Amino acid sequence: MDHSAYSANKNRYESGMKYRRCGKSGILIPEISLGLWHNFGGADDFEKGKKILHHAFDRGITHFDLANNYGPPYGTAEENFGKIMSTSFKPYRNELFISTKAGYNMWDGPYGEWGSRKYLLSSLEDSLKRMKLDYVDIFYTHRYDPNTPIEETMQALADAVRQGKALYAGISNYPAKAALSAYQYLGDHETPCLLHQEKYNLLYREPESEGILKQAVENGSGFIAFSPLEQGLLTNRYLGGKIPEGSRMSEDFFLKKETLTPALLDKINKLNAMAKDRGQSLAAMALSWLLKDQAVTSVIVGASSVNQLKQNIEAIKNNHFSKEELTKIEQILSHNP
Ligand SMILES: NC(=O)c1ccc[n+]([C@@H]2O[C@H](COP(=O)([O-])OP(=O)(O)OC[C@H]3O[C@@H](n4cnc5c(N)ncnc54)[C@H](OP(=O)(O)O)[C@@H]3O)[C@@H](O)[C@H]2O)c1
């Protein structure tokens, strides 16, 4: 198929997608964002990934989340995204909000990971080349580096913005105390933190318990949740206790088979019954549960098919939970048979 044949849905902004403001900034992002960690690398089916990206944009998803090391192999999700950027998405650059990150292992030697100025700025250069972009909309430090002065890491982000290679700066995988220092440094250097990206879902609640959500709001930063479906556990994928062929758990790497214990199965089946009563899929309910809180600017979902993405977008239709429903969810999650 000729990539240039793509023409975005004319009604993309009337299809129901809602947009939330990132903290105290001028930027609105969709409640549902799409991440390219899995399913978009060199080892994946390019045409399928392209269909997912097209569908996303056609439904008003304007935010795509990448990182230098997404693939596999590392860098290939950015390369594939670059192919789409230079063809079908080319006319829409100004409508897209594209992120990348650097922090995890990317190349050999002492300058290929963590939070030094050298690593971050050279990695951003490489990311821009792979994605065929002049700039990214947001550049993140992908993880807190306890051995590099936080001032060095933050100054590299601020300089990336100053150089026009990123429009905004963000942090990911930062503990609360380090995040506070990051907000302060970036704010003092006229590059306020646009988004704090952390894992957050029904089964993983650290942003609540560690006060990260509250802290982001207090400091004028947006908050964006990654792995909102706990890599597929909070969907119908594993409800029967079987591990479907081709599923993320079947790879037994990022999502380990041992996670699927009888106690967890019991919980997700009970949550699924609740979702049914609400007229939602489990995936949609899990996302709605995150979006009920205005402190959550967006959730970054992954999807291995257009159908999964369609189901996930349904979450925006009902973000209201009664007090009784919220209590019941907590009872289900805390019950250990
Ligand atoms: N900052 C960080 O350190 C960090 C870390 C992780 C992720 N992220 C970002 O967050 C994004 C999302 O992470 P994630 O992929 O772990 O998110 P997720 O939404 O929790 O999990 C996505 C996976 O769940 C399954 N799934 C999704 N929707 C489904 C549905 N409706 N029904 C059945 N199964 C469904 C699919 O797996 P199958 O393959 O089994 O179909 C899909 O690939 C990443 O792409 C990345 O952009 C950031």
Describe this structure in words.
- With 337 residues, the chain is an alpha/beta fold.
- The chain has one domain: NADP-dependent oxidoreductase domain (TIM Barrel, Alpha-Beta Barrel), CATH 3.20.20.100.
- Helix content is 37%, strand content 14%.
- It has twelve helices and ten strands.
- The strands form two sheets. An eight-stranded parallel β-barrel has the order 3-4-5-6-7-8-9-10, surrounded by six helices. A two-stranded antiparallel ribbon has the order 1-2.
- α2 (76-85) links the parallel β4 (63-65) and β5.
- α2 crosses α3, α3 (117-131) packs parallel to α4 and α9 packs antiparallel against α12 (323-334).
- The chain starts with 18 loop residues before the first strand and ends with a helix.
- The mean pLDDT is 97.
- The structure holds NADP nicotinamide-adenine-dinucleotide phosphate (NAP).
- NADP nicotinamide-adenine-dinucleotide phosphate binds next to β10 and α11.
Short description:
With 337 residues, the chain is an alpha/beta fold. It has helices at residues 46-58, 76-85, 117-131, 150-162, 176-188, 206-209, 212-218, 248-251, 262-277, 282-291, 306-313, 323-334; strands at 19-21, 28-30, 32-35, 63-65, 97-102, 136-141, 166-172, 193-199, 222-226, 298-301.
Which of globular, elongated, flat, extended, rod-shaped describes the shape? globular
Distance between the termini: 53 Å
What's the total number of strands? 10
| CATH top-level class | Alpha Beta
Using the 3D structure, state the CATH architecture.
Alpha-Beta Barrel
Instruction: Provide the residue-averaged pLDDT.
Output: 97
